[in-house]
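Notes from the 1:1 (GR / supervisor)

We went over the backlog. Supervisor wanted to see one worked example end to end before approving the batch request, so GR pasted a single chain during the call. The sequence is below; no edits were made to it. Supervisor asked that the structure be written out right there so they could see what the output format looks like.
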Amino acid sequence: MKEIVIQTEKLSKIFGDFHAVDGISFEVYKGEIFGFLGANGAGKTTAMRMLCGLSHPTSGKAMVAGFDVFKQTEKIKKNIGYMSQKFSLYDDLTILENLELFGGIYGMSRKEIREKSQSLIEKLGLENESKKLVGSLPLGWKQKLAFSVSIFHEPKIVFLDEPTGGVDPVTRRQFWDLIYDAAHRGITVFVTTHYMDEAEYCNRISMMVDGRIEALGSPSELKAQFHTDNMDEVFYQLARAAKRSDS
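Structure output shown during the call:
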């Protein structure tokens, strides 16, 4: 039996008359790379913020890492990592200082912070840059470092919101290598993106259109369902069908 680490049932977020997230239901398993795909404005970020305990749902149910998103948000925050669309480290601190700061926030011991910092810097090949200000690093290195910090404390789940926006294709591929490594260590990766080619890197994906999940499955399953080898075509067919149903 696969261990369920995220479970939602008809989860919704409404702002006035606008249904940003409209009754979504799905499950995510331990160690899975789960893609949350859709165009900008589809509701991906709003849904993620609810799951992270950063935004209170309007209705429905959801459990994250065994905790209720309505009643146990602080416990959720202690068991997850999070990387937002905007770069989340401190530009005016060095790489080492950022690691020490976030390690302390995560409740790690000084010894553990020191040992893991050294290991991480070596893994990323940043030995010569460890005492440089983060603000001086190229964007690609900043993004990879931000991801590494988000899982510094070995959380059960890491939420990544459009993590590869603005970086070149080579850096994007390197970033996904870090994601694979985290998943192999048993960390569940929940990633939002509007890059349809990144769907191929996920174990399963859900595709959102106007706040609703219109399709869910592995990339191969969805391409077979829609009779295409192209994930862009899958999304185009979904969006077109959703528009017809709303009219």
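Supervisor's comment: The two ends are 42 Å apart (CA to CA).
Batch request approved.
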